[in-house]
Specification:
The chain has 216 residues and is α+β, with helices and mostly antiparallel strands. 48% of the residues lie in helices and 20% in strands. It has six helices and seven strands, in the order H-E-E-H-H-H-H-E-E-H-E-E-E.
Length: 216
């Protein structure tokens, strides 16, 4: 990144030097000053993987394994039992299914390395509570239903916390000589970065104070 920034700075300095030369020439001063831009730069970073070990969850972070439908089912039913919320079988199954579907949706939508037990438990418990409230539509919200949200979130959080696994610790070498020696092996991986620059030209207003920004 520093090399890209330095290249842009060098290009700007050269543009200033050329602008000064143009302004001193009676013919060139009427022409636009040529200027080099780097609107997009692709950087390819080869790395040699030397070892993959078990991480500690601190340096590389955590991932979360998707719980089975049976595990989510059990966690929600524990909350239903502890809250003493009595529902007909079909309605209880619907409450459980809402939580199971929400957990599945969370894992389908997001990267498992970015999911947290807190977020997934909140989503699933809210889905279960919403379904439970629908079954009680028209009836008073008793203490059982009022206590169910906290119990559902706690039960699901405990399940998901046990599903956390540490990300593997990867040791890499970036020295060119070592990478060249292993150039044809599967241990060499490439990280490709696309860097895009957004630049604007400042133009003074000809008929008054102020200026406008024009994309280059």
């Amino acid at each position: 990144m520093s090399a890209v920034a330095q290249a842009r700075a060098s290009a700007d300095l050269e543009a200033v030097r050329i602008a000064q030369a143009y302004s001193a020439d009676p013919l060139l001063k009427h022409l636009s000053v040529p200027r080099v831009r780097l609107p997009e730069v692709t950087v390819d970073l080869p790395m040699l993987i030397t070892d993959i070990g078990v991480g500690d969850g601190k340096s590389m972070g955590w991932a979360m394994e998707k719980p089975t439908r049976t595990e989510v089912n059990k966690a929600v039913r524990v909350a239903l039992t502890e809250s003493k919320l009595r529902l007909p079988v079909a309605e209880g199954d619907a409450v459980v299914a809402a939580a199971v579907d929400e957990v599945s949706a969370a894992f389908a939508e997001g990267d498992p390395t970015l999911l947290t037990p807190e977020d997934v438990a909140r989503r699933a418990s809210e889905a279960a509570v919403t379904k439970a409230a629908e079954t009680k539509k028209g009836a008073s919200l008793g203490p059982e239903l009022m206590g169910f949200p906290k119990l559902a979130a706690s039960s699901l959080h405990e399940l998901l916390r046990r599903k956390r696994v540490p990300m593997p610790a990867v040791n890499v070498v970036v020295q060119s000589a070592a990478i060249k020696e292993q150039a044809n092996t599967a241990n060499v991986v490439h990280i490709r970065l696309n860097i895009t620059e957004d630049a604007f030209e400042i133009t003074e207003e000809p008929d008054g104070p102020g200026f406008r920004l024009t994309p280059e």
